[in-house]
């Protein structure tokens, strides 16, 4: 049973949770019916593309693929409950097989189609990394594979998980969480069955590498009061070193992936701990509202309830972070900040907007590590507990 | 006789420069009549050169006559006054172009010559002349031993090129090569697109200065690649021949081969040009073609059984070299004529004196011309390697599919029986549609477009 101090620690968080549950249509994770596309439908969609190519050639016409344009804001609309989502009838780019400048991409897309076709047909899985290393000469870089897989996902109107292509996981998770992976492996993020982080061999608290096959994860059990998304591995490990999960127990800290899954299952507040710089803010916006590039899958990826816990630009002034720990914004930072301020979702987040405008005025940024300049354990023992206790999120 | 005809043309061109006509629509005619007479013990070859149409307007024939007389005596010491040509021949000529502007006749006695060879040389010379003087319609008629050879050289497609020093040249850019069968109607450019190179100053060697050649001498290249394949950007091309034509300041071809050009391939960097090698064609070809021809060595075909429509398209390159000269102290017609003779006579020495710079300039021009061809090779390679992936991926999906309807639709679409035939059929179709991708260009000459209202092709009649 929770003591009076612990109850006081989580009182604001509990209030937030109640508010979230009131505002958001709650569907228990076990009852959530996801619109899954059958494997037969995926194969059929790919076959339709191939038939289109064959038909073009039968008419002595050069085959052309219509690639949905995933980089234009003109194809995006904003829904506060979902985030950024792709409009129907959005523009597309033609990838021609008779143009030397685009034929390589055409071939890369066809190759990905074939790989996916075989994976789905054989009910096996591969990571994007596997695909790249099997065809390095064709693709040239991992980034190309990643981009084309997302393009194909958008073309086929199917989430990447339905294509049996997984991301190469580099994410870590720790705290009050247990679940089963698809193959039945039981994962307990609190205790010993963990993968030590390769960046910190002296890790004292366990952390688990997040499985790539998030769809397959089931039986999630947690009594966590909140989830905290931590932008950087270095900060994550710092928290582990300082035994954050025990001090603020019950909670979950995570670096990447699985956020949406946790929200769908646990419906507990999700906080973001990012650097006070435009890049960190953008990462957080992507978690909350999604990105233009992945807007076609917004329903499955975004968590609109994410709250910005820190590091806030106003924290830098309030806490009087030493000046030598502060960094001037670069031109690139300023441009990114200006771009963020024009995003359609900011109008529904006046507090975020205010913080960004403050950063724009002061022209200063700082990493989370800058708090160590105040005191070595300031982050874990003062900053975060106070933020969580007194509702210092926006 | 060829030399004499060349001199007369030079005179006509120098006279014409004084009242230069810039319009392509100016009609000018040039008639070269040759006929033989056999006397008691000697054979004579008579020649009349006539010009009619819009030539050197404003210059009176009466004023010109003394000049012509002097020139005849100095240029043709062995020539005799010629009997006048058949008036009917001249009538037919003037009917086409209007009144005569110039008529010059001369005769060479005791001329031992091979009629057929001479005729071929004169024809080749006039044809070369026509290539850089496309505004002028040239008519050649040669009668000997009851035989008549007639050739009318009228250019179908002309193009004006602007050289340095505000000079213009009117080039014959017609390309008579027939398009392949797979090319649709009106999708073939019947002309070429000349590219003007930079003006290269030439230093006059002291030996030539001693002979009286002063002033500023320069040379300017113009390249013309044929047939034009700009509308087929993906088509692989293969350069087979390079023909070098040199024109004097009066724009009359410099006749005869030169050692400099014979040895040129040895000094060019073929690797930089993307060529396997260049070889001079035989001397006989020089004589008849009035220009130096280089044959490009080809690499063996990677796929000897490749379908003909997928083989590289052969192109030839015409390299015009226009000599320019200016000397403020040379203003009389006779001086200009003499200067031209000097330049032609000592051209070998002049070019050798400027070997490095001329070779470098030609290397640059050839490199620029062949850049497009080399780019096509890279594009072809990109298309080919991607096509392999596209086809193998598509065939794999069809082969792996358990959907009978899908497989049947694919096979029926290409009208084949199995996936093996489907693979071959798709391969051939993809290669064809990508290689022959057509991108229309405004500057190309479709079947309907002509620059000059006269539509007669070059005709050749032997009676």
From TrEMBL, chain A:
GO biological process: one example: meiotic DNA double-strand break processing
Essential cofactor(s): Mg(2+)
Domain of life (superkingdom): Eukaryota
Domain Topoisomerase 6 subunit A/Spo11 TOPRIM: 226-388
EC primary class: isomerase
Active site: 133 (o-(5'-phospho-dna)-tyrosine intermediate)
Pfam families: TOP6A-Spo11_Toprim, TP6A_N
Any GO CC annotation of this UniProt entry: nuclear chromosome
EC assignment: 5.6.2.2
Main location: nucleus
Catalytic activity reported: ATP-dependent breakage, passage and rejoining of double-stranded DNA
A GO MF term: DNA topoisomerase type II (double strand cut, ATP-hydrolyzing) activity
Compartments where located: Nucleus
Keyword Signal: no
Family: Belongs to the TOP6A family.
Protein name, UniProt field: DNA topoisomerase (ATP-hydrolyzing)
Origin organism lineage: Eukaryota, Metazoa, Chordata, Craniata, Vertebrata
């Amino acid at each position: 049973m929770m003591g009076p101090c612990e109850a006081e620690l989580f009182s604001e968080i509990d209030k937030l949770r109640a508010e979230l549950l009131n505002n958001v249509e709650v569907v228990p994770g076990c009852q959530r019916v996801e619109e899954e596309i059958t494997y037969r439908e995926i194969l059929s969609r790919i076959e339709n593309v191939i038939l289109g190519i064959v038909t073009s050639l039968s008419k002595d016409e050069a085959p052309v693929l219509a690639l949905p344009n995933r980089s234009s804001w003109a194809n995006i609309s904003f829904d506060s409950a979902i985030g950024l989502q792709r409009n129907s009838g959005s523009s597309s780019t033609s990838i021609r097989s008779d143009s030397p400048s685009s034929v390589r991409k055409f071939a890369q897309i066809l190759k990905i189609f074939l790989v996916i076709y075989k994976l789905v047909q054989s009910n096996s899985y591969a990571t994007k990394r596997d695909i790249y290393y099997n065809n390095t000469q064709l693709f040239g870089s991992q980034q190309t594979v990643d981009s084309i897989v997302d393009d194909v996902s958008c073309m086929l109107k199917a989430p990447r998980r339905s294509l049996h292509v997984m991301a190469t996981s580099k994410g870590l998770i720790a705290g009050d969480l247990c679940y089963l992976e698809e193959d039945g492996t039981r994962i307990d993020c609190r205790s010993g069955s963990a993968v030590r982080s390769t960046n910190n061999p002296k890790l004292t608290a366990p952390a688990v590498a997040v499985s790539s096959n998030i769809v397959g994860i089931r039986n999630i059990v947690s009594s966590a009061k909140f989830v905290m998304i931590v932008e950087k591995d270095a900060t994550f490990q710092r928290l582990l070193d300082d035994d954050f999960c025990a001090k603020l127990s019950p909670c979950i800290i995570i670096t990447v992936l699985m956020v949406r899954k946790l929200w769908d299952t646990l419906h507990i507040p999700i906080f973001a701990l990012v650097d006070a710089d435009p890049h960190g803010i953008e990462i957080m916006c992507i978690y909350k509202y999604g990105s233009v590039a992945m807007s076609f899958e917004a329903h499955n990826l975004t968590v609109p309830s994410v709250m910005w816990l820190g590091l806030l630009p106003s924290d830098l002034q309030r806490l009087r972070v030493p000046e030598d720990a502060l960094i001037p914004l670069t031109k690139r930072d300023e441009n990114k900040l200006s771009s963020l301020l024009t995003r359609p979702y900011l109008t529904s987040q006046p507090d975020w907007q205010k913080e960004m405008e403050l950063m724009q005025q002061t022209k200063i940024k700082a990493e989370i590590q800058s708090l160590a300049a105040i005191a070595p354990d300031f982050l874990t023992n003062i900053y975060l507990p106070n933020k969580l206790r007194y509702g210092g999120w926006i | 006789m060829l030399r004499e005809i060349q001199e007369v043309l030079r005179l006509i061109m120098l006279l014409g420069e004084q009242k230069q006509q810039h319009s392509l629509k100016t009609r000018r005619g040039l008639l070269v009549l040759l006929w033989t007479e056999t006397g008691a013990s000697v054979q004579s070859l008579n020649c009349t050169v006539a010009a009619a149409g819009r030539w050197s307007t404003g210059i009176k024939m009466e004023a010109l006559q003394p000049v012509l007389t002097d020139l005849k005596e100095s240029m043709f010491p062995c020539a005799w006054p010629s009997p006048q040509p058949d008036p009917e021949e001249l009538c037919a000529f003037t009917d086409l172009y209007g009144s005569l502007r110039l008529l010059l006749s001369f005769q060479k006695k005791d001329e031992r010559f091979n009629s057929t060879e001479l005729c071929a040389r004169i024809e080749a010379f006039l044809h070369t002349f026509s290539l850089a003087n496309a505004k002028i319609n040239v008519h050649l008629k040669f009668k000997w031993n009851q035989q008549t050879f007639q050739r009318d050289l009228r250019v179908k497609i002309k193009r004006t090129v602007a050289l340095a020093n505000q000079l213009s040249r009117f080039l014959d850019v017609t390309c008579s090569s027939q398009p392949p069968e797979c090319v649709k109607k009106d999708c073939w450019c019947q002309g070429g697109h000349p590219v003007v190179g930079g003006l290269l100053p030439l230093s006059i060697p002291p030996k030539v200065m001693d002979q009286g050649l002063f002033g500023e001498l320069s040379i300017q290249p113009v390249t013309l690649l044929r047939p034009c394949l700009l509308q087929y950007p993906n088509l692989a091309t293969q350069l087979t021949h390079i023909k070098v034509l040199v024109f004097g300041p009066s724009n009359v071809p410099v006749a005869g081969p030169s050692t400099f050009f014979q040895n040129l391939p040895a000094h060019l960097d073929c690797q930089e040009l993307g060529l396997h090698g260049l070889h001079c064609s035989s001397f006989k070809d020089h004589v008849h073609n009035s220009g130096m021809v280089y044959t490009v060595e080809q690499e063996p075909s990677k796929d000897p059984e490749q379908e003909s429509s997928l083989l590289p398209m052969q192109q030839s390159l015409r390299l015009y070299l226009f000599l320019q000269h200016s000397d403020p102290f040379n203003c009389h017609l006779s001086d200009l004529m003499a200067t031209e003779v000097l330049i032609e006579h000592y051209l070998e020495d002049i070019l050798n004196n400027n070997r490095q710079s001329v070779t470098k300039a030609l290397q640059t021009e050839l490199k620029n011309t062949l850049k497009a061809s080399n780019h096509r090779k890279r594009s072809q390679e990109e298309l080919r390697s991607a096509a392999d992936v596209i086809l193998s991926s598509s065939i794999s999906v069809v082969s792996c599919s358990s959907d009978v309807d899908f497989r049947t639709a694919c096979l029926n679409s290409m009208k084949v029986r199995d996936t093996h035939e489907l693979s071959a059929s798709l391969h051939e179709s993809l290669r064809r549609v990508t290689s022959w991708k057509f991108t229309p260009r405004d500057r190309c000459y479709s079947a309907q477009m002509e620059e000059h209202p006269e539509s007669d092709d070059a005709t050749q009649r032997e009676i």
